[in-house]
């Protein structure tokens, strides 16, 4: 099969690598332009570009698909299918119509649930017990196209966005290969999505990391895992920001003295406990005060020397 491949981040890498390994004819890889990344904001290629260069695949890096010359360039190809994995841009109608078998998207949720840019973190935040990957034919809507194949997996109690993303990316690569082979043989029957069961997973914003200590402890723990590594869960202590890097709903039999309102702090046997809106405690495992290194709860307790009545601010 002749393919065009559209993708940008690490999530798309296993699919591109598997398509190469399975001897698909990838005529062109389309990815985002090189951008500033990392601490020094040095200009770096996308993970997909790095893979494409490793396999000596033809590359195209338009900033926008509406840019002059993009349609002319892509219309030169007559692929069997276009594979789209976390590309980051909405495909225009003229592009959707080019491949004979359509543009096949790999989406990291069980569609129609969690349509949108950030299905993985929102599935964790909302306490879903399972998620998965879906291949679908792209249409003019936002993740509304006909479903081709689906594969499920459990969301583990300790899953963060990176751990779940890595697992789904590998599953997705296998599912995309299976989908393309099935389309090639004509054995896959597309089925329409039930939009009455849909939900939306918008791109994360900085404000999504802000903790409200009136929330239940388990909900806050899921928020910490879901917004890891960006924007990161955060609160404030003594007027300065503090990042909550790892936490869990406390499983303790002897509760500390009453800490007052939600956000109230208590130190007990090396644990840093925060009183939450449901009367339970959040057990802070790792945190990072503004201007300081990442540290354990015990290190924070030893350095902060908590006073009675101190609290994290919502």
What does this entry look like structurally?
The chain is of the alpha/beta class and 314 residues long. It folds into two domains: 2-197, 3-Layer(aba) Sandwich (Rossmann fold); 206-304, Methionyl-tRNA Fmet Formyltransferase, Chain A, domain 2. Helix content is 24%, strand content 26%. It contains eight helices and 15 strands. The strands form three sheets. A seven-stranded mixed beta sheet has the order 5-2-1-6-7-8-9. Strands 10, 11, 12, 13, 14 and 15 form a six-stranded antiparallel beta sheet that branches. The mean pLDDT is 95.
Topology of helices and strands:
Blueprint: E1 2-7, H1 13-21, E2 25-30, E3 35-37, E4 42-44, H2 47-54, E5 59-60, H3 70-74, E6 81-85, H4 93-96, E7 103-107, H5 119-125, E8 130-137, E9 147-154, H6 161-185, H7 217-226, E10 233-237, E11 240-249, E12 265-268, E13 271-275, E14 281-289, E15 295-296, H8 297-304
Parallel strand pairs: 1-2, 1-6, 2-5, 6-7
Antiparallel strand pairs: 3-4, 7-8, 8-9, 10-11, 11-14, 12-13, 13-14, 14-15
Q: CATH homologous superfamily of the largest domain? A: Formyl transferase, N-terminal domain
Corresponding CATH architecture of the largest domain: 3-Layer(aba) Sandwich
**Average pLDDT score:** 95
User: How many E strands?
Assistant: 15
Concise structural overview:
The chain has 314 residues and is α/β, with parallel strands linked by helices.
Characteristic key phrases:
314 residues, alpha/beta, Rossmann fold, 7-stranded mixed β-sheet
